[in-house]
Design a protein that fits this description.
Elements (H helix, E strand, L loop, with lengths): L2 E4 L2 E4 L6 E4 L2 E11 L2 E8 L3 E2 L3 E2 L4 E12 L2 E4 L3 E4 L4 E2 L2 E2 L3 E8 L2
Antiparallel strand pairs: 1-2, 3-4, 4-5, 5-13, 6-12, 7-11, 8-9, 8-10, 8-13
Length: about 110
């Protein structure tokens, strides 16, 4: 993964992110270390990919960049924004493939 820290700014790119093999598809993730109490991840879901249970220890803010994500709460097409409170659980997946940015408060 390409992650750089320059003058208090962090950046990463999804093209060189590690692959997470899950039982139902492939998901790539690029993680940025916590900066100012926040941590960020870029996720790329291959078509048909489903993540396991996502339990949130802290508050999560997510934005779908392209494609569509789904979970038991509904569908999130490109441009959707969600907030998941600490202690919530969901099971994200994507039938068509998707990219999303997820920001969490760090513990």
């Amino acid at each position: 993964m390409n992650q750089q820290m320059i003058s208090g700014f962090s950046r990463a790119d999804i093209e060189s992110a590690p692959l997470i093999d899950v039982s139902t598809g492939r998901i790539w993730t690029a993680h940025l270390t916590a900066v100012g109490g926040l941590a960020a991840d870029l996720y790329a879901f291959a078509p048909g990919a489903a993540a396991g249970e996502g339990f949130h220890l802290t508050t999560e803010l997510g934005f779908v960049i392209d494609g569509e994500l789904k979970d038991e709460n509904g569908a999130y097409p490109a441009g959707s924004l969600w907030v998941a409170a600490a202690g919530t659980v969901h099971h994200p997946c994507s039938e068509s493939g998707a990219r999303a940015l997820v920001v969490q408060t760090s513990m």
